[in-house]
Amino acid sequence: MDAELLSEAFVELTDTMVAGFDVIDFLHVLTDRSVQLLDVSAAGLLLADPRGELRVVAASSEAARLLELFQLQNDQGPCLDCFRTGRPVAAGDLAAAAARWPRFAPAAQRAGFTAVQALPMRLREQVIGALNLFRADRGAFAPASVRVGQALADVATISLLHERGMRHSDILNEQLQAALNSRVIIEQAKGKLAERLGVDMDQAFALLRDRARASNRRLSDLARAFIDGTEPLTTPDPARTRPTTRRRP
User: Fold this and answer.
1) What is the rounded average pLDDT for all residues in the chain?
2) Share of the chain above pLDDT 70, in %
3) Residue ranges per domain, the chain?
4) At the topology level of CATH, where does 3-166 sit?
C-alpha cells in the first residue's frame, strides 16, 4: 500500500473546513481513494437522508452506482445489511451468497464483481451510511485492507459530523439533503453530457468533476449551469480519463 497516497487520503478526508467545501466531491474522494488504496475494482457510498432512508451519493464508476441503486430498489444487499446492523458485512464469493441475497448476488456478478465488503459509516451509535467495496476476484478481503477501509470510512464520518453535525443536527440534515439534491442535478448533467459528446457516463462525470475543480466551483453549480445552457462544455482530451488527484487549497 502506498504510504504517501494513504497519508494524502487522510488529509483530504479531514480537510472539510476549507472555503467552498463541496460535500459531493468530498464523498467521491472517499470512493476514489478506496479503490486506489485497497486493491478493489470499485466502491460505492450510501448515506441516510434526514428521514433515515438510504440514498446513493457517490461511486467510483457507473457500474458501482447502478449496483448500489439496485440494492436500494430491491431492498437487499450487503450495504443495506451493514447500515442496519452498524457492522461490517462481507462475501468473498458472491456465487455462494445467492441464498443470502438472491437478487443482489446475481446482479453483482453480471456487473463483473465476485466479492464485496461493506463498511459502516458510524460514530458511536450513530450510523449515517455505508461504504461498499467491490472486487472482480473471488476471495476474502485482507484484514489489513478492511482495517484501512474502515479507517477511511471512520475519518470521513467524523469529518461529516464535525462540530456542525454534533452540535447542530439540523445543519447535518441540511448538508445531507443538499448533497442528495445535488446528486440529482449531477446525474441529469452526466446524462446530457454523455449523449451530447458520445462518451460513457463515467467519462461524462469525470469531465464535469475536472471542470469544476479547474474553475474552483461546486459540482452541482457547474452541472446546473450546463443543464440550463449557461455553461458550454467541450469534448474532453482523450487522456483526461486518467484518475485525478485533489490538491488542498
Assistant:
1) 82
2) 80
3) 3-166, 178-241
4) Beta-Lactamase (3.30.450)
Query: In 10 A of CB 48, how many CB atoms?
Result: 20
Contact 152, 34 (CB under 8 A): yes
Name beta bridge partners: 133: 43, 117
Q: How far apart are the first and last CA of the chain?
A: 26
CATH topology of domain 178-241: Arc Repressor Mutant, subunit A (1.10.10)
Reduced to 3 states (helix: H, G, I; strand: E, B; else coil), residue 60 is coil
What are the tens digits of pLDDT across the range 131-188? 999 999 999 999 999 999 999 898 888 877 764 454 455 555 666 666 677 778 888 8
> What's the CA gap between 227 and 166, in Å, rounded?
35
What is the chain's Cα-based Rg?
17
Please state the φ and ψ torsions of residue 23, each to the nearest 5 degrees: -60, -45
Q: What are the tens digits of pLDDT across the range 214-239? A: 888 888 888 888 888 787 776 554 44
Amino acid at 229: G
Q: Which residue has cell 469525470?
A: 206
**Separation of CA 189 from chain center:** 18
178's CB contacts (< 8 A; 6+ apart) are: 23
> What DSSP assignment string belongs to 33-63?
HHHHHHT-SEEEEEEE-TTS-EEEEEESSHH
Percent helix, strand, coil in the chain (nearest 5)?
A: 55, 15, 30
